[in-house]
Each structure stands twice: as C-alpha cells, then as structure tokens.
C-alpha cells in the first residue's frame, strides 16, 4: 500500500486557470476528482493546491477510497489502426506525395496541427 508521501511524489496533472470572476487562480488535479484550490498568485495557488492534494489523498486513504494513479505515456503504444474511406485514403496519399513525405508523416502532421488547435481553445 502506498503512503501519502508515495502519492505526493507521483506526477499528477495540474491545471492552473485564471479566475476571471474573483481574481487569482484556480488549481485542480483532473485525475483526483474534486481536488481543487485557489490562490491570489500562481505561487500561492500552487502552494494551496499541494496542501489540498495532501488532504485529498489523506481523506481517500482514511476512507479506503481507491486513488487513481496518474496517466502515463507507458499506457500508450503510439500506434492505432484507423479505417477510412478509400477516397480519403487517396486524397491523403496524393497530398503526402506533393509534400514529399510518407503518408504516415503527413497524417501525423495533420493530427498534430489539429490537436494543437484543440489545446489552445
């Protein structure tokens, strides 16, 4: 069984969002549902978030609640199979040839470009 210190050292994702209504910042740990804190500055918000994380983990351990582990790139192979219409396959193949790269590289470029747009929303 992991201890509080073991969990505190795990690389949980942290989200920092400016609080446009109240001012300051809101910090949350998406992998730890309900673990949220605030602070007037980013430094205060992060410090408060670490306290909130410790309290969240302590309460979960004391209540015998399952604590999720952080998502890891080890959970992903970097490969997936995708079925597409033949017309799209043809179009992607032609565009990749125009760019002078493999269709795999071209598709990676398109996915990365669109994923970056999604992240910036």
Automatic annotation (TrEMBL):
Q: Residues in domain HicB-like antitoxin of toxin-antitoxin system?
A: 12-78
Gene3D superfamilies, per database record: 3.30.160.250, Met repressor-like (1.10.1220.10)
UniProt record, GO biological process: regulation of DNA-templated transcription
* Segments traversing the membrane: none
Instruction: Kindly provide the name given to this protein in its UniProt entry.
Output: Predicted nuclease of the RNAse H fold, HicB family
């Amino acid at each position: 069984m992991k201890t509080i210190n073991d969990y505190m050292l795990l690389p949980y994702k942290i989200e920092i969002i400016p609080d446009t209504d109240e001012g300051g910042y809101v910090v949350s740990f998406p992998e730890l549902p309900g673990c949220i804190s605030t602070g007037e500055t980013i430094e205060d918000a992060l410090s408060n978030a670490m306290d909130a994380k410790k309290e969240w983990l302590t309460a979960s351990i004391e209540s015998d609640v399952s604590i999720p582990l952080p998502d890891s790139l080890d959970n992903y192979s970097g490969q997936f199979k995708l079925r597409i219409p033949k017309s799209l396959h043809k179009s992607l193949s032609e565009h990749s040839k125009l760019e002078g790269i493999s269709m795999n590289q071209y598709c990676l470029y398109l996915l990365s470009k669109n994923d970056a747009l999604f992240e910036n929303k």
